[in-house]
Amino acid sequence: FFSGYLVNSCAFSPDTRILLTCCDDNKVYVWGAQTGNLLRKLKGHKGPVLFCRFSPNGRFFASASRDCTVRLWDAQTTECLQVLRGHSRGVETVSFSPDSKQLASGGWDRKAILWEVQTGQTITQLLGHRDAIQSSDFSPNSKYLATGSWDSTVQVWDLRTLDKIKKKILEGHKGNVSCVCFSPSGFLASGSWDKTIRIWKPETGKLLTKLLGHLTWVKSMAFSADGLRMASSEYSEMVILTIFPPSWSLATLPTVLEVAHVCAFTPDGKLLVSGSADHQIFGEGTADPLAQPT
């Protein structure tokens, strides 16, 4: 895979047939995940595209851009269905609810917006962070939305009563919280510029453990489908694979990356993919390379 520009984010379709990448050239790239062939370059954004994600039902994908918008796309036709306007500054993150009916976005205006996917209408705005929101994720049971911010906190929003949303503020990181990610079993992981990953119980806000091992900023995290492995990339060539309890063992994966900006598991958990500042996407570890058919 080669895009020619900085790869900011990548995402697999639920059926593992499509890989999305988004770049600083204002485009979203659509790849055949089994062949490595470039299928489409999607234009429309007027600024660098910073994040992309598929909906769990595979019908949609969303892209977030420095142009202050979120674009919602039809996964089958790659048609842009909605341009979501509501942020006043660049949008850093988007995430879908497990039922694919809601979309959350967050960015440099310090707010998260909850959208209705079907209509593109705003459901509510979530206010409280003191600096830019850089990451977001829904819990597997749809009860919670987690947001990570440059204010060094993680905020967990209880979505069960939308008319009166409560939140927990998770403190402890000593730097920008660059990524948050729920495990399939419901644990919450947060990665930071303080070189640590923290694992939380979202219902109570209790810190369960702190993972050390990264040598520089944690850039991206992803859980395997079984929840037993977590990959994390940092602002260097390093990708770390963490095996979850009871061992909490760490393994450093060999890469050929300049800087491992992003990482993602395929939905079946057999392949780990990382994207880099040298514009390329690489398959790692547990399965055949992406260019080889399965």
TrEMBL record:
Cell cycle in keyword set: no
Keywords: Repeat, WD repeat
PROSITE patterns hit by this protein: WD_REPEATS_1, WD_REPEATS_2, WD_REPEATS_REGION
InterPro entries assigned to the protein according to its UniProt record, in alphabetical order: WD40/YVTN_repeat-like_dom_sf (IPR015943), WD40_PAC1 (IPR020472), WD40_repeat_CS (IPR019775), WD40_repeat_dom_sf (IPR036322), WD40_rpt (IPR001680)
Name of one Pfam family that matches: WD40
WD repeats: 7-41, 42-83, 84-125, 126-167, 170-210
PANTHER family from the UniProt entry: F-BOX AND WD REPEAT DOMAIN CONTAINING 7 (PTHR19848:SF8), WD40 REPEAT PROTEIN (PTHR19848)
Protein name: Uncharacterized protein
Gene source species: Vombatus ursinus (Common wombat)
Gene: LOC114047114
